[in-house]
Structure formats: structure tokens, C-alpha cells
Amino acid sequence: MKYQNEEFEAETFKDIDLTYVSFKNSRFIDCDFENCNLSNVDLDNTKFQDIRFKNCKILGLDFSKCNDFILTFGFEDSFLSLSVFSDLKLENTNFTNCQIYDCDFVNTNLTRANFENSDLKNSLFRNTNLSFTSFRNAKNYDIDPNNNFLKKTKFSIPEVISLLNIYDIELE
After folding, report:
1. What whole-number distance in Å separates Cα of residue 33 and Cα of residue 127?
2. 12 and 31 Cβ atoms separated by less than 8 Å
3. Which residue ranges make up each domain of the chain?
4. CB neighbours of 167 closer than 8 A, spacing ≥ 6?
5. 103 with 86: CB under 8 angstroms?
6. Mind listing the pLDDT tens digit for each residue in 29-88?
């Protein structure tokens, strides 16, 4: 199936290996990706509107290359690694029950995003708006409160103590 320069609406992509496929200049509207491998997919000028990724492997994707007009997607029970979400407006985006390793969220608006029950090992948050965002039961996040905007951001104990990592203090 050809994916470059195409339009897909209300389609489900299930159990497909899309490694190194090009989505360049394509439009995906109201589509579901289930149990798919999306490693190293070319997202240059890709339009995602109301897209759901469930149980997917997402490795090495640069979402900042997407067409950002009405860019809306969400992730559930997925593995995301070495992917870039920088400089995007991702308000209300779900990243629930995910493993999010070594991903970049620099200059990203994540207002009201949901990272509940996710593992954010080595992911970078800098100059990121995390207002009203939920990190309930999330773990391994490293968020510097001095370099990100936090307002009514939700955290769980004991993981919230990681917000003190930037200070040279000892807790007993």
C-alpha cells in the first residue's frame, strides 16, 4: 500500500509493519493505528487529525516535521522512543500507559496533556507548558520546575520528589 502523497479518512491500520515508510505530504483524518510498528517513518508535512495510536511501536519519529494545522493525536499502551515533539501545540494530548523513552518535548505546549501511568525515562522537558497536565502514577520523569511552566500540574507521591533533583539537597 502506498502512503506518500495520499489521504486516509476513518481507516484502521492494524498489525502493520510501517518501518521506514514515507507518510510525506499525506493526510490522516480520524484514523486508528493498532499494534503497528512505525519505526523511522518520514513525517515530512504529514497531517494528523484525530489520530489514535494504540499498542504501537514508535521509534525515531520527528513529529515536529508534521503539518501543525489542526494536529491532534493520542497514544495509549504504546512504546515511544527517540522521537521529537518539540515546538508543537499538543494541548489535551493523551500519552497514557506508555513507555516514552528519550523523547524531546522542548518548547512544546502540553497544556492539559495526560501522561498518566507512563514511564518517561530520559525524556526532555524544557521551556514546556505543563499547565493542568497530569503525571499521576507516571514515573522516571525529570522536569525542572525552573525551566518549564507548571500550573495546577498533577503529580503523584513519591515520584513528585523528582522535581527536587535540580537542587543539591539530601532527603531523609
Report:
1. 30
2. yes
3. 1-81, 85-171
4. none
5. no
6. 999 999 999 999 999 999 999 999 999 999 999 999 999 999 999 999 999 999 999 999
Please tell me the distance from the alpha carbon of residue 123 to that of residue 125, in angstroms, as a whole number: 7
Query: CB neighbours of 168 closer than 8 A, spacing ≥ 6?
Result: none
Distance of alpha carbon 117 from alpha carbon 138, whole angstroms: 5
Question: What CA–CA distance (Å, rounded) separates 25 from 44?
Answer: 7
Domain 1-81 part of CATH 3.40.50.300: no
1-81 and 85-171 in the same fold? yes
| CATH level 3 topology of 85-171 | Pectate Lyase C-like (2.160.20)
pTM score > 0.85 for this model? yes
